[in-house]
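Because showing beats explaining, we let one protein speak, sequence and backbone structure tokens together, and leave readers to judge.
___
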Amino acid sequence: MIGKSGSISALYKLSISGSSISATSVTLPTSSASGGSVEVHLVGVDPANVDTIFLAGSSANPQIYKSVDGGTTWSSSWDYSSTGVSNFPGGYPQYIKFNNNKVFISASVLDGTSTTWSHAPNLSSTVGSNTIETHVNDGALEIDSIDSTIIYMGTDWGVGQMTYASSSWTPGSEVGNNDGMEGVMLIDMEFYEYSSTHKELWIGTKSGAGRANYYDPTDPTTTDDSSDWNFPIYPEVDGPPVTEVAIHPADPAIVFVANNAGRVYKTTTGTSTSPTWIKVFQAEDYTSVFGSTRPDHSKITSIQFVPSTPSRMYLSGYNWETGTDGGVYYSDDTGSTWAEDTSISGVPVNTLWVTDETCWAGVGNSSSSETGLRARTSITGAGNWWSPSTGLSLDNEIVSSIAGTTVGDYMTVYVASTGGVYKGTLYIPTSSGFSSWSWTSLTSAIGSTNTNFTSVTLDPSNPDTAYVAVSNCIYETTDGGVTWSVFGSSCVNTHEDVNVLKFDDLIVGTVIGLFSYLPTSSVTPTPTVT
């Protein structure tokens, strides 16, 4: 096989005779089932009949090809965009598994000589007293080595078990469950403060949204058990990973949940145990911004309120399929309807920072030429976006996170990127726009050999205290970025990668759970599972 950028461009069959090996070129398919271009990422050969070969590839239009003559011809093909029996219902193919006369690809099975694929059903999982529906949307499948009718699949909740026999699926349940917020991939979190010991806490995870029943940041036991959570929450039974949660700054009952399929849901009963939801945004309605290639493969990256006028809101996102499509939308009715912010359309936006005076966006990814910051000329009305210059390498880097605050006459912002961490300060009384900002690179002071920073947060009342995350490390500064030190017990092999930071003292969302860092007298803070 010869591949280019993850796609196979040439395929060969090797023959071994004694000590010699010969290679014969295999002609790839020339057209997909729906008539589009061919993209191949995987090759599977049936161990019971080496002349039976399957090819699979492309998440934009998942494609499957079958040959029964060793690749001389491709007698059957299926893809996501075709109709009828030629439709392939699976997601992005990540494996090809054979089981007797059956082949499993992306949670779908082709049984014997059938020409129609059958997709695995959803499962159920019991957490405490709650039974919830889970989805077979992870890239793993194994067949029981003793009883080949038993199938194990990765789900958005754990490991699911089901049976496939006599051409039909029998849904089972999870055989590996999460407990509390440990063993859950955290993507986002947000809180609303009633008091210093009572806060509304929402999280976004790969396994749905969640709300803490009663969150006291001084007492980790208020969130360390599954019974302490309303979790998972799937608005309108929509199962993709939740990428963003937002709480109205003046009304904690108003909550927004967004996901990795470009959809945003709103509830006005977010403080209840059974919130009701309405879909207020979907990227599929805006192909001019999110692209015509799988706009449902779009990640909502940020939902922000204008602090003093929270009826004015902004959201951002990008198409993770193409990497080059995305943009910003605004709402003037507390997120019930949304309008395109046309001067930033077609730009992959990773994060937003919104104040009463300004709105910034951090842009870029590996598939796009867009980099650095964008700034809006007006927080309301038909403001335009432009590309300001910091005079630093930040302007040519992918921006992943922005955190800022205003204390007295000074506005301070920290920016995390794929190349480092930067600090901007503005003396408001003499400000004449973005050119009045003073910028400093903090990267060398941090001293991390890995500069692919993922998140930054700061103390809103004291901008000299800030935290940044890179890989499995958290760094802290208490002097405005002049010096940094490893925080807590992070940056060791046993500490998992950090996805998101929030200042509430410090809450950390990692690839395996939600943690608070609580100091004990003079002992270095250590993470406590919440």
